[in-house]
Amino acid sequence: MGKRTDRNSALSEMTPSKIETLQASTDESVGLADLAVPTLTILFHPDPQRIGELARLHEIPAGRPVALSRLEPVFTADGDPADRRPLADAHLSRQPIVLRPARDDTDTVRIERGASRVRVDVDGSRLEATHTVVPEALARGIVITLGRRVVLLLHLHHARMAAPPSFELIGESTPMIRLRHEIKATAGLDASVLLRGETGTGKELVARAVHAASPRRSRPFVSVNLAAIPASLAAAELFGAARGAFTGADRQREGFFARASGGTIFLDEIGETPPEIQPLLLRALEDGEIQPVGSRETQRVDVRVIAATDADLEAAIAADQFRSPLLHRLAGYEIRLPPLRRRPGDFGRLFFHFLHQALYDLERAEATRTRSRGDQPWPPVSWISRLARAPWPGNVRQLRNIARRLAVAQCNEAPMLRLATLEELLGSSDPAATHKTRVTASKVAHGSDSGRVTTTSNGLATASSTPPSEDAQRGARRAADISEQELLRALAQHGYERKRTADSLGISRGALYYLIEQCPHIRQAGDLEAADITPVVDDAAGDLLAAAATLGVSRQALKRRMRVLGLR
């Protein structure tokens, strides 16, 4: 507010159609008007530095297939085309999976397993032969898991986009590119900005980014949550109060607008503004004047207003709960923040950023503790696949909270959160989803006393029992120091029971889950079919303990799987 330039005054008077025209021209100038192309984004990779890398599949719109394997295609960190490399994980097959356009529709993609021997899951279900991705699903994003090692997102991404400043916001998806360009377009203007978006989308972060990029960056940024201010105190809190204005007002009180003088005031939950306060707020926006409670004098303020809401203000206007002129004044420029489900390509970067941040904060808080564990803080890959497919009604805030829960479990050396708890946090009541992501080993290699690995004639495995190593007996080991052979032997020795195995190895159960997930010789109990189980149980004359040892699972895991399959 205060004295405006002609340009800024014109912008503040913009009609919605003019705003849309300006935003459309912004899209065109940054390349967002281009057609989007199918793209693979890395959501998880054993090398966490590679999370977020992209491979744009220009061949598919041109009617040509794309091979996906350890060796191809090449991925690049966005904005650095010189850094190009394939997935290059030794546990992935050199034989490719094939992504090809449908013969009569290049907007439809077929995923073909081909000759690849690696396990492939598409949106949580195993790929047996082919999977057809219709345009609607491609627009939403499809999660592809390769060998429980790499998680990819197949989605649409614009081929040509100018790189805007990051504004310390995480994400390279098309909606985030648009958002960052809108921040850049509005930062240098004094017009009011209205941020609209669902709860948890980061509206205050965007408001701070607009302020930090503006000429007012060296002046105050004052954040106010209008939903947290009682209606009876709102006028005094916002505009101040004169001495003696009410009981207990023994001195002049400065309001939020005065504190933000020369800078920016962020009015969060603007839809909760009490009706009696709305005319006062409108006057402040129109004339740059406020009147403290109990004072006859008005006060000039030079403050830029950024407001935010997740409410339907148009419906509130129709219900006479919000003033139409106030909405028009607030929306000098309107920015809509994308929900997390509209930017699935950013999931990997966001999740591991929050996980690292939480672990760092917890380490600082417990600086007096000595921790020698070296286990990586990643949840199992199956969890990451499940999280990437979640609807996230709480958006980025909900994702951050779950990452913190995982970090707390890790730092407390407690088992990772149970999958049932994870499903509850995600608001899911689908027991099948919980069962699919339960970490249960069901196939191990046979190990002799010398650590040699072999398999039985039917392709299933057993392992000989050996005493735990001296390091395991001492406890407090690094998970990275445990070899695959030692892991397999310990599982067999302790009947594939997780707690007993973790204790014998001297690691946390969370670390054990991670090792099992990364071991290519172990599969989930949910992978076993009736044809795998029945002959082994028959050979064991119904002895489930012996059958479980042959199959490489715990007796309880075998019983659960048999119940699911309807076996005796």
Structure description:
This protein has 568 residues and is an alpha+beta fold. It has 4 domains: 6-25 and 163-338, P-loop containing nucleotide triphosphate hydrolases (Rossmann fold, 3-Layer(aba) Sandwich); 36-158, Tumour Suppressor Smad4, CATH 2.60.200.20; 342-430, no CATH class; 446-565, no CATH class. The chain is built from 22 helices and 21 strands. A hairpin with a 2-residue loop joins strand 8 (120-122) and strand 9.
Distance between the first and last residues' Cα: 76 Å
Topology-level CATH name of the largest domain: Rossmann fold
Adjacency order of strands in the biggest sheet: 2-1-12-11-8-9
Unreliable spans are 2-19, 29-33, 367-377, 428-475
- Please give the CATH class of the largest domain: Alpha Beta
The helix fraction, in percent, is 25-40%
CATH architectural grouping of the largest domain = 3-Layer(aba) Sandwich
